[in-house]
Amino acid sequence: MSAAGAAVVVIGNEILSGRTRDANVQTIGAALAGIGIRLREVRVVEDRPPAIVDAVNALRAGYDWVFTTGGIGPTHDDITTDCVGAAFGLEVRHDPVAVDLLTRYYGAAEATDTRLRMARVPVGATLIDNPVSAAPGFRVENVIVLPGVPRILQAMLPGVLATLPGGPPIVSHTLTAWVRESDVAVDLAAVQARYPALDLGSYPFARDGRFGTSLVVRGNQSAAVAAAAAEVADFLARRGVEFSADGP
Amino acid sequence: MSAAGAAVVVIGNEILSGRTRDANVQTIGAALAGIGIRLREVRVVEDRPPAIVDAVNALRAGYDWVFTTGGIGPTHDDITTDCVGAAFGLEVRHDPVAVDLLTRYYGAAEATDTRLRMARVPVGATLIDNPVSAAPGFRVENVIVLPGVPRILQAMLPGVLATLPGGPPIVSHTLTAWVRESDVAVDLAAVQARYPALDLGSYPFARDGRFGTSLVVRGNQSAAVAAAAAEVADFLARRGVEFSADGP
Question: What is the average pLDDT across A100-129?
Fold first, then answer.
């Protein structure tokens, strides 16, 4: 169990511009929760060296693990590898294993200098297997460098997570209640006060012109999560609120 | 035209846990681009006072504008208002105008203490109109505090943006090309070098088993954006690459 948890750096002009809606934070957050590691901060930064280097250095000092997404392809705007090298003061060089992987994937004739840029990693980095398109990710100390394409990131993530020391999964129960959150705020705060190790969240929504609230109980002590969720269900029932329990 | 641009603080346990995929960053990024303001950094932080206060203070010093999303509702986990007050060293009090708005919206009998918590703002804050559910956002200096519910944020944003000094909109042309990005990396870098004031981005994708790349030209000089996009179209055509130009 990692007390300090994890952070993500999204290298992403396309996210900041509004062109693309990020999908990787949700993937990583949920996957980390499954092995008991809490995602605690995300920074989305521009494709500029100081922005990337500063974010990596700030977060790797503050969290157990830092994931970066994006910027490890073959084009001029792919600068993450060099920035991670710079953050650690490490030279970036072609890794012979990565060169071999890419050469076999593309064929010798098509393994151009441009493509072999994707074989460059900071000296001493550990490669991360890419089962989709060969170009590896890598890890330097507690920094894990992954691509931005969601499908490829999703394929690479299980291999990475298997190498991290995890703990009991962080689980959540959601109660979807047809009530305004202000009408249950006091009751909910009372449950939160009884379970300080859990996170109780309240997320209002409107659907078909009706107001509702998702009440979420979350933590890595599954018995306590279930007990707190039962207390929430109790006060909803006592107040005559219509609700459904989505369970863990 | 704001050279230093804007940042967003997402107050969001539910984003970090993977429960919810953030939608507001894309909304704000695109809306700011429309008035010539570049979104340059996003931090997603936990619902904990030091995390929120530190992010607000770091970003308000570095950017022209900081938007916060989430955490201004009536429940125990809604701590953004107090954290923004703390970041500025300002006391948080009930605002009489906000109290009046909420009292009229809910009716005097239903305007409970819990609901009136949403009328608390740092002393001297300017209220931001909420045309959906009355509870206002607010602005303190360059920090703009908005709710996390996407539909309400979207309704409040136009009123906020109308008060900011903007500039020529940031526009983009996208060329969707059926080519691997490594095969156009050199050509693309050459165009980027000729237009240093623009951002040229390359985003690979796979669709129906074929590899493609979205080539995006972006900037606030619309004539230069069009010219650079035309150069990209030229090299794609010269290489016989099938592509479509999505235009500005």
Answer: 97
